[in-house]
């Protein structure tokens, strides 16, 4: 991913346009694209801000984190509760709605993993393995 251009370059391009230079001429002078200078000036005129906003990052997980204690308590009370049931529980008891995927990401951040037990993960493996041995042919 590319880095943002320097704030100084952005400020100088905006200053040049505010002193009467065209946006395209300022872009050519500072060696950036015309569309960048056009966007910078539009943003500066709309908000007065000369610097770029922060990019990326998590902006919404704090909404579900407020309810993480409720989620963890519900799982402790009933270990086999599904994500859909957790979503319904939050909606009914607390009036907040979250998608099951959002609940899963919250639980994942808290290192809550739901694994099948060993017996179910390896159901009938030994029997299948013995049948497969008979199918293996020796090299000719």
UniProtKB/TrEMBL annotation:
Name the source's superkingdom.
Answer: Bacteria
Locate the coiled-coil region(s) and give their ranges: none
Q: Pfam families from the xrefs?
A: HTH_23
Keywords for this protein: Plasmid
**What are the boundaries of the region Disordered?**
116-140
Q: What is this protein called?
A: Transposase
Record organism: Komagataeibacter saccharivorans
Upper lineage: Bacteria, Pseudomonadati, Pseudomonadota, Alphaproteobacteria, Acetobacterales
